[in-house]
Amino acid sequence: MNLISRSIKYIKIERAWQKKYNRLAPVKGDLAPDFELFDIEGKESVRLSDFQGDKPVVLIFGSYT
Fold first, then answer.
1. Under 8 Å CB-to-CB from 57, ≥6 apart: which residues?
2. Stretch 17-33: mean pLDDT
3. Residues 37 and 46: beta-carbon distance below 8 Å
4. What is the extent of the structural domain holding 47?
5. Which of 22, 41, 48, 60 is the most buried (most CB within 10 A)?
6. pTM of whole model > 0.85?
7. Is 58 within a domain?
8. What pLDDT is attached to residue 1?
9. With contact defined as beta carbons under 8 Å apart, do 46 and 34 qualify?
10. How many angstroms separate the CA atoms of 62 and 20, rounded?
């Protein structure tokens, strides 16, 4: 199998995957899913929904290693 035919094969696979899963992705304006986190001691929890209706909440994800 040469490079061009492999590329065509994987492009078709990728397009099928996108068609299936893109409809599940959040879009601008959607509410974030609710989740719960505990403090460092594991005693108190806070839910994202606790802040609903208050000031905007910004979530930042990343690797800090």
1. 32, 48, 51
2. 88
3. yes
4. 3-51
5. 48
6. no
7. no
8. 64
9. no
10. 27
Total domain count, the chain: 1
- According to DSSP, the residues that pair with 36 across neighbouring strands are 47
Distances (CA, A) of 34 to 11, 24, 46, 54, 60: 35, 16, 10, 15, 15
**Chain center to CA of 39:** 23
CA atoms within 13 A on the CB side of 3: 0
What Rg do the C-alpha atoms of the chain give, in angstroms?
20
Q: Is residue 38 part of a domain?
A: yes
pLDDT of 42 reads 92
Residue ranges of alpha helices (H) inside 1-65 are: 3-21
* 17 touches 11 (CB < 8 A): no
Between 1 and 54, where is the model more confident?
A: 54
